[in-house]
Amino acid sequence: MMMKAIQTIGIRGRILLVEDDRLQAKALAAILEDAGFEVVSVPDAGKAFQVVEPPGPDLILSDYRLSEGVSGLTMIRMLRKLLGRVVPAILMTGDTQAATAQDAAREGCAIVQKPYLPWDLIDVINRHLPTVPEPRSASLSAGAGTCGRTVEGGIRSADQASGCFQDLKKGRAG
Predict the structure, then answer these.
(1) What is the pLDDT of residue 99?
(2) Measured between alpha carbons, how far is 102 from 16 in angstroms, rounded to an integer?
(3) Distance in angstroms (rounded) separating the CA atoms of residues 37 and 32
(4) Alpha-carbon distance 104 to 51, whole Å?
(5) What global pTM score does this model have?
(6) With 65 labelled, which of 6, 18, 94, 101 sits at a CA distance of 20 to 30 A?
(7) Domains in the chain: ranges and CATH
């Protein structure tokens, strides 16, 4: 079988990877890093809210079915609201229901069907990343971060971080 080469050119963008399968996350992060992306990998929506700080990643890559009863799509919606901008996002899923694709399309999210080939995923990522990553000081941190709420273009204090995730778990994403 012929393998397609994955071109690397420095840091090509910052990706927040949300995948609850530990082995899958580790393999995917390695592939993305080898392709030149900066990757912060977290296992669930709660951790995503802990590591994302404005202005956020260049792209969110998330499994559709996450642990804790929160869908990747709901988490993406909440992260976008938190950041006050529409961050490009891709959902990875084995779900073939038309409703899932329609929901993702309404939110402007691409879908990559599992199983997928690494270079196909890289192609989708390249099509959805901004051409030039935005300059930023600290948008993702490997440790704990803050989670505020976007209010008329501003961010409230970090003391509301738990409320952000609690709303998410209770389904108050809108």
Answers:
(1) 92
(2) 23
(3) 6
(4) 23
(5) 0.73
(6) 6
(7) 14-170 (3.40.50.2300)
